[in-house]
Specification:
Layout lengths: L11 H19 L9 H8 L3 H5 L5 H19 L9 H13 L2 H8 L1 H5 L5 H25 L5 H22 L3 H6 L12 H25 L1
Helix pairs in contact: 1-2, 1-4, 4-6, 4-8, 5-11, 6-9, 8-9, 9-11
Length: about 220
């Protein structure tokens, strides 16, 4: 928490810096605690502002994390070309899964979409978020088509949609609460342990294989 006295941001540069500071504080808190335990009050305290001043930039706690999700997804897609080889689709999917396993913040936020983030937020704010997020998804779909030329545009967009749903479903099971993590160390519960990268890679391989097979079937119909 900063010890400097609060000063209102008066220029666009200052407002951008303030928003960046709030998002940085949110990312830091999320690395320490589940999103459900992070309050707007704690976020404001971490960045050195009052709740009222945070709300000048983001209407609710959920809006902060929506914005952080978009920023994190954009940064990941920006760097993704270096993680994806030019190879067979199943190899590309395995590399995609491993890349995501190195993005815990993005995975945590995607897993919170339906349960946490799409609550306590205005329709206008949700619309703005989803439109911005759709642009990130479109960029990812284009990149996947470059790596897998046999994938048509609609199939690439469908693959991205499945990717987000798979991450949202798998991430919590791969990162359970401490008591659950301790329990599944029992050899009898080995089947309950979830290796995120391996399970996601396998699910994506099955998905892309199915999408390519459907495309081939449509061409031969």
């Amino acid at each position: 928490m900063t010890s400097e006295p609060f000063q209102r941001a008066r220029t666009q540069e200052q407002r951008t810096a303030r928003r960046t500071a709030i998002l940085g504080a949110a990312a830091g808190l999320l690395s320490e605690a589940p999103l459900s335990e992070i309050s707007l009050r704690e976020l404001a305290r971490r960045v050195g502002l009052s709740k009222t001043n945070v709300v000048r930039y983001f209407e609710t706690r959920e809006a902060v994390f929506f914005a952080l999700l978009n920023q994190t997804a954009q940064d990941w897609v920006d760097g993704l070309p270096g993680d994806l080889p030019e190879a067979e689709p199943v190899v590309v999917m395995d590399a995609l899964a491993r890349s995501l396993s190195r993005q815990p913040l993005l995975c945590e936020l995607w897993s919170a979409l339906g349960t946490e983030l799409e609550r306590n937020i205005s329709a206008e704010a949700v619309r703005d978020f989803k439109l911005a997020h759709a642009e990130v998804q479109a960029r990812l779909a284009v990149l996947l088509r470059v790596r897998m030329p046999g994938l048509k545009e609609t199939a690439a967009r469908e693959l991205v949609a499945h990717l987000i749903l798979l991450v949202a479903g798998l991430w919590p099971f791969a990162n359970p609460a401490p008591a659950v993590a301790e329990a599944v160390r029992d050899p009898r519960l080995a089947h309950s342990r979830v290796d995120f990268a391996a399970r996601l890679g396998r699910a994506l391989q099955v998905t892309v294989t199915g999408l390519l097979a459907l495309a081939e079937s449509d061409r031969n119909a």
